[in-house]
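<goal> How does this chain fold?
<sample>
Here is the protein in question

***
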Amino acid sequence: GPRGPPGALTAALPQDWEQRQEEDTLLIERILLLVRNVLHVPPDPTEEQGVDGDASVHDRVLWALHISGMDDLLKFLASAQSEQQWALHVLEIISLMFRDQSPEQLAALGQGQAAAERGEDTQELETLRQRELAEKRARALQRPSRHSRFRGSYVIQGLKAIGDNDVVFHKGLHNLQSYSHDLGKEPRRVPRQRQAP
């Protein structure tokens, strides 16, 4: 089933810290000190004569803390604004957790993971970009290559042009209401002397 944090510590950490009893505060401190003391035990090379690659006692303790959910609880205590009184205990526990690791190893491990994640992100972005380009090409093929200004011609029945033929209307149908025989013709200029005063 899903892993859960240690019950006693979870029960002592209600959402509202003002409701916490003095016994709860003592219990939290005792559990944190116990975890610190367990992690503080120095390695004994004579006792730990395992095969190369075997997990050390320290590593097995860390794995047990992880399985129990204690690491998530420590992260909560370290980041919660209302739990700042435990900051030094949590800091000491975290420093003991990384006791056998050199800063160079930890930094290299983080960089390796970051590089792998960056590689995955880049590959995902490239896939999305290729898909978008393919969609753009498909849309371009569906569209006509050139916009046509020809909107069609319509015959207006019952309205005679010069002669016996019906009028042929070359504009859009929405312009039909404003049709007159003078549509498109240059207005005749009247000389200034002949203009009405």
Remarks:
- The radius of gyration is 42 Å.
- Confidence is low (pLDDT under 50) at residues 1-5.
- Residues 103-142 form the longest helix (40 residues).
